[in-house]
Amino acid sequence: MDERQRLKAGTSALVTLGVVMVAALGVLVWDYARTKEVTNTAAIVVLVGAAGVFALMQRVLGAEAPRSLMGIELPTGADAPSRRRRRRAYLVEALLSAVALTGLSLAGLVLGDRQALTSALPFAVQGTPGPAALLATEFVALFAVSYAIDRALGEWSSKAVERQYARLDG
């Protein structure tokens, strides 16, 4: 089996494994919606085991170049323009993630029990400034964490691809 066939077979196996993981998650969500408890041990074991196998297969199949949010392959080089382009992609992804999750929190504040959600604030700001400060703090924290994770994973992936290229060339 040549490298291209191995890659296609591995990708197919990963897609199948992803479907199994989604099905196990669906069973767990259904179980929780029905009984307000998650007691299906088999589904939990399948979900955790499939995640482990998924990570192992990704490692065995080899590194993949990091991709932007739109699916465009980012450059993996160590030169300044490549790093700058990757950092810009991480910045955009972190910004969009922070906006989306802060928007969900805003929806929770608007639609949910506002008093219960804001009573846990570490500062005693009542009225509109309290939730606004909460959302601003959440946005900054989400942005920072998302950027750090995106950058760490993207740079690791980029270096792994470069190592794989060096191994194949040498």
UniProtKB/TrEMBL annotation:
Keywords: Membrane, Transmembrane, Transmembrane helix. The chain crosses the membrane at residues 12-30, 42-61, 90-111, 131-149. It comes from the Bacteria. This is Uncharacterized protein. The lineage of its organism: Bacteria, Bacillati, Actinomycetota, Actinomycetes, Kitasatosporales.
